[in-house]
Protein: Enoyl-CoA hydratase
Amino acid sequence: MTLISRTRARAVETLSLDATDTRNALSAALVSDLADALTDCGKDPDVRAVVLTHTGTTFSAGADLRDPPHPDALVGLLRQIVELPKPVIARVTGHVRAGGLGLLAACDIAAASTTATFAFTEVRIGVAPAVISLPLLPRTDPRALARYYLTGERFDPSEAVRLGLLTTTADDVDDALTPILDGLRRSSPQALTETKRLLTARVLETFDRDAADLTALSARLFTSPQAREGMTAFLERRDAAWVV
Structure:
C-alpha cells in the first residue's frame, strides 16, 4: 500500500503525502514511495507540473524517529525534486517540521495557508538540519535563518516568506496557486525544463560539493548519545536532560 495518493487535472499531477497516523513523518517507506511517484511524473510526457501536498493537518513532522530513512535516501529524494524536469510546487495547509522543510526548499515554488506553522526542531533532539541544508541554504537568507536553525522556535508563514522558504502565503492557498498553475499550463514543456535548470544550478552545485559531508554529519549525530537522549525525551513527551 502506497503512502502517496495521486490525482491529475489538466496536466498537473498532485502527489499527497498520505501517512496521517505518523503526521506524514519521513519514514523509509514514505521516502521510497514519494521517490517512485516522482520518477513516474518525470517520465510522463502528459505531466506538465507536480503539486506536492498532504492529507491531514501536518505537511510533514520531519524524520520518522521509529523508521528513519537512510541519509543517502533523503539526499536522493531532495535532489530528485530539484532535478525533476518539471516544476514542483509545494502546497501546505498544515504544520511543517524539521525534514519536511527540506521538501519545501527543494520545490521550485512553495505556497502555504496563513494557518501553517514551521520549525527546525532538530536542535531540540540533539541533531542538526544537515541534509536539508542542501536545498535550504542556497535558497534562503542565512542570517535570518540562523535564528530558527539555532533555537528551534516556531515561525509563521509571513516569516517563512521573508526567509525565502515560501513563495507566497494566503488565507486560501488554492486561490493563490490558481494563477501559478495556469501560468505553468500555458508554458512550453521544453521551456519549463530549461528554465528550471537555470534556476536550480546553484542548488545542485551545493549538492555536488556538500552532500557527502552533510550525509556523514547526519549519520554521526543520529547515533550520538545526545541524540538518543533527545529522541527518547521527545517520544516520552518530556524535556531532554540538557534543558535548563
